[in-house]
Amino acid sequence: QEKSCHLSAALLGEDSEISQEQLYELLKYAALGKCHKAAQPSWCRIYHQSHLAGVVVVVLHEMSQLHFYRFYLQFKHLRKVFRHRFTLAPSANFPVSLYGEGANLKPQNTPQGLSSTSSECITKSSDLQCDPIIRRYGEKKQGLTSYTLTLKEQKENDYPIEGSPGCQGYISTECDQQRTDSSPLFGLDCEMCLTAKGNEVTRVSLVDARGQCLLNELVKPESTVLNYRTRFSGITKKMLLPVKTRLSDIQTRLKKMLPHDAVLVGHSLNSDLQALEMIHPSVIDTSLLFARNEGRRFKLKFLAKAVLGKEIQCEQKLGHDPTEDARAALELAQFFIEQGPIKVAELNLEMLLTAEKLAEVSQNKSALQPQGCEFQEQLNESPPLSKPCFLDCLQVTGQKPLLLGRQGLDSSGLCQSNLSTSNKQILQRALEDVPLSKFSIIQFSLGPEYLASHLHAGLYEKVRSKLTDLLTIYAGPFEENFCVKSVKKEFGRCGPIQSLTVVTETFQPYVCIQYEVLEAAQLAVESLNGAEVAGSCIKVQRPVTATMLDCNVLIKELELDVENEGVIYVAGLKKSLTETDLQEEFSQLKDLETLFLPKDLQSGKHRNCCFLKFQKTQSAVDALEAINGWTMKGSELRSRNALAPGHLWRWIWQMNHSNGKQGKHIFYEKMEQLSNSEQDLRKKVKKLDHHIKKLYRSLQSNTLCVVLFPGVNSTRGSHSGLGLMGIKDGEGRSAC
């Protein structure tokens, strides 16, 4: 039976802004796979990439995130089909950032150096026989039990073992060795400091098979600390001062958390278990799993980058993040088990490591060498060592990319310019040709008359105005000398307040409150309208403006948005609660997948609300019922269905904190022109959505489809783009 591809992306929260380079990562991996040295993207994961039927990229020329939310109701198909959505950082040269430097789609031209690169991508089978990974594990793909360390291997690599010298007093996890290939994997990593006793644990992290953090705890050492090793551990004396958790507490918690057949995964995991003074029988050590000759080991940082395409242990950060390291080790083991030894050997990690070291040496020499010297001249004369564009690689592997567009994608021959071609004609060509191509880029456009850059300023102001109205509520009437503080406290239980002003132009005073999140404003309308606040029975309503006449329709559609499925909003949290506290408090909720705690993007302080994402929609419904009225640390919680995806929350925050003057001088001059054409523009957007719907329905199952609003980055201003993506399943929906 054909395996079903699916896509996983943790895009809830501030991290939902994706750079052009990260988008390129996704398309390169989807198009080429690991056998051509394309690594899994760092921000999402494609499962069973080799079973992808094809990749289709739909580019909506010169359109931005503004267009999607200005015409949200018109984009009926897009918002109902694609489960993953992200803000796309705008680029000054979108085609180059999308296809990669040096892109050349002319079939008659073979890029320089491509033949050698292609030959490097395909490792000869005779060479693979000498690879230490193949010598150790063979060529056949096996289950996880084949990669757990034997008792002999544990002894040879200094793992704590029951009854061994030096392990007296060590605590056993009491897990048995009855593991199977379906046993659960857990990533573990610790940070240590040097004490009078030796290495002692100062921080412990445990993640489950989905990468969800189960434990991230600071630990106070028993002995006097001689060296905090802050550069590596990130731990300081100040951090440990208030900590009361001891090693024995962590040992007890780990024993309770790990099931009887748990398999622990880590990088040089023996050091972590020794510091924890714990014995566990079933382990996968990624420093040994990715075998090298002569007993050498790859560093975790290198493996994460070379295999997963992830940057960890960045120099900008103070110390290592144990949760990040635990997750990286876990994903490396999952990759090895899923792909098998042959695929791992084909990555040619030794060659990649050598190339990386040579690049570092070259950079250091270049930095030290004076300008104009012989070495610098040789570098200038040498051809660039940049990797070829992945579309060129596609052609070499016999896959011809399909490019259809209304306008030239750029001036370097990426797509022939054909200004007379309509969206309808492009759609007809796409319906005929896309099924015959493994990789297709289809470009639609609203037409030059609707894409003038001055119209973006008008769109920005309209969207900003509408969002402000949605975030704003009026409440009252109140008594003359009412307590503003108690009103703010009551309405603050619905979510973070951006501003509160008293309206005195009325016979009795009212308050105007602008919230930071849409859910808070809606919760205030739903829960406080008709309630008694500050001694008065009040009415709570949104502003009555022309743009708000369809407010109820918009709120309903936002609730039904496929990206908000299984996501709920919770308000009334005390700011003293940490993310770890909340994880523990909400751990009793069934099928909880992710917790997102919004933060002020300037101060870094978290707000008094959070979003909870559940694996199943019914679990979210049950959680709503359970949480409403729930008291946490003396504070009563309020909750409702989510309205705004994570990327939109970030955008709203930026709009709230902008000065509101972006493009205003242009806006007032051009608004009349925009208003006159808006009805026509709505019709065109609706038709464009219908074209994409028709194209999407024609795609084969297991096709990755990415729809891009590229954004605008010009001298007149910058507007973020938007990406929507999903893998089509057998029923025409986008698979998670």
TrEMBL record:
Q: Which Pfam families match?
A: RRM_1
Q: Which SMART domains match?
A: EXOIII, RRM
**Name of the coding gene:** Rexo5
* Record key words, sorted: Exonuclease, Hydrolase, Nuclease, RNA-binding
Q: Give the originating organism.
A: Helopsaltes ochotensis
Domain RRM: start-end pairs: 471-545, 566-644
Gene Ontology MF terms: exonuclease activity; RNA binding
Q: Which domain of life is it from?
A: Eukaryota
GO terms under cellular component: nucleus
Protein's recorded name: REXO5 exonuclease
Q: Where are the transmembrane segments?
A: none
